[in-house]
Amino acid sequence: MKKTLAIIGLGLIGGSLAIALKGFEDYEIVGVDVSQPTLRYASEHGVGDRVTERAADVLPQADVVVLALHPQGILDFLTEHRDRFKPGALVWDVCGIKTAILEGAAALPDTVDFVGCHPMAGTEFSGVEHAFGEMFRDSHFLMVPRETSRPEHLALLERMAAWIGCKDVYRTTPEAHDALIAYTSQVMHIIAVAVCDDPTLFDCKGYEGSSFRGCTRVAALDVGLWTQLFSLNQPALLEVLDRLIGNLQSYREVLASGDREALAKKLAFSAARKRQMDLPGPDLLA
C-alpha cells in the first residue's frame, strides 16, 4: 500500500519538489494549494501524482508533510492544523529561515516529528509555472533536527535529498543556519535592491555591464516573501548589514583620502580573500 507525501504550497519550490519526488520509494505525491489556477496548472502538467485544495482532508492520511509556504504561512499553518497531522508523521519545511520556524513547530503535538530543512536552490522567478524537477540538482540540503527527531526520519530525509539530486546533506543549528543565510543570501538581495534605488538607474538602461546585471539579478524579488524572510531573521541580518556598512565606509574613507597605495593595498586584500574562497578544496558543507 502506498504511503502519502503531501506538499503544502505549489509555488516554485513546492511545485519543483512535487515533480522531483515523483516515483520516490512507495509514496504518492499529493500537492495542496488554495489557488485554483495553480491547481489546474499542476494537474495539467503532472506536478505531483494528484492535487487538492483541502489540506484538512489530506493531513490525517499523510505520512510525510512538506510545508512549502511563505514563512508566516508556515507558522499560521502549523497553528491552524496542529491537531490534524497523522500521529507518527514526519513534517518538514523548505523555508529560508529556521529559528522562527522551529519555534513555531513547538505548537505541534509530541506525536508529530518536525525537522527544519532548507534545500538551497531557487531562481528569481515564482509560481508553479516556473517549477522544474532539476531545481535541486547539485544543491546543498540543510537539515536542522530537533533533540526529539527520530533517526529513521532523518535517514528518510537524506534519501529524499539524494533522490531530488542534492549533492549533500548538512546538519546544523537554527542559529548557524540563519547567520549563514543572512550573509550568503539575504544581504545579497538587499545589495541588489539598494543598487536599484539609485536615482540614475534608468539613465543606465541599455548600457548595463554583466557585473551590474549579475549584481541586480535578484532585485525583482517576491516582495511578500522577502519582507517575511528579512523580518523573521532580523537579528542575524542586522548583524551582517552592520558589518557590510562598516566595510563600505572603510572603502569610502580610503577612496576619499586620495591615497592610491592604501586603496591598492585594500583592494589586494579583498581580491586575495575572494581568490582563496574560490580555490578547490574540501567543501565546508560536505
What are the key terms here?
eight-stranded mixed β-sheet; Rossmann fold; 286 residues; alpha/beta; 2 domains
Describe, in plain words, how this protein is organized in 3D.
This protein has 286 residues and is an alpha/beta fold. It folds into two domains: 170 residues, 3-Layer(aba) Sandwich (Rossmann fold), CATH 3.40.50.720; 103 residues, 6-phosphogluconate dehydrogenase C-terminal fold (Orthogonal Bundle), CATH 1.10.3660. Helices cover 47% and strands 14% of the residues. The protein is built from eleven helices and eight strands. Strands 3-2-1-4-5-6-7-8 form an eight-stranded mixed sheet, with helices on both faces. Strand 4, helix 4 and strand 5 form a beta-alpha-beta unit. Helix 4 runs parallel beside helix 5, helix 7 packs across helix 10 and helix 10 packs antiparallel against helix 11. The chain is elongated and about 75 Å long. The model has no long low-confidence stretch (mean pLDDT 94).
Give the total of beta strands: 8
CATH architecture tag of the largest domain:
3-Layer(aba) Sandwich
Radius of gyration: 21 Å
**Element order, helices and strands?**
EHEHEHEHEHEEHEHHHHH
Structural class by secondary-structure content: alpha/beta
CATH H-tier superfamily of the largest domain: NAD(P)-binding Rossmann-like Domain
Q: Biggest β-sheet: count, sense, barrel?
A: 8 strands, mixed
Q: Give the mean pLDDT.
A: 94
Q: What is the CATH topology of the largest domain?
A: Rossmann fold
- CA-based shape: elongated
The CATH class label of the largest domain is Alpha Beta
How many structural units, i.e. domains?
A: 2
Strand portion, in percent?
5-15%
Number of helices: 11
Distance between the termini: 35 Å
Strand arrangement within the widest β-sheet reads 3-2-1-4-5-6-7-8
Helix-residue proportion: 40-55%
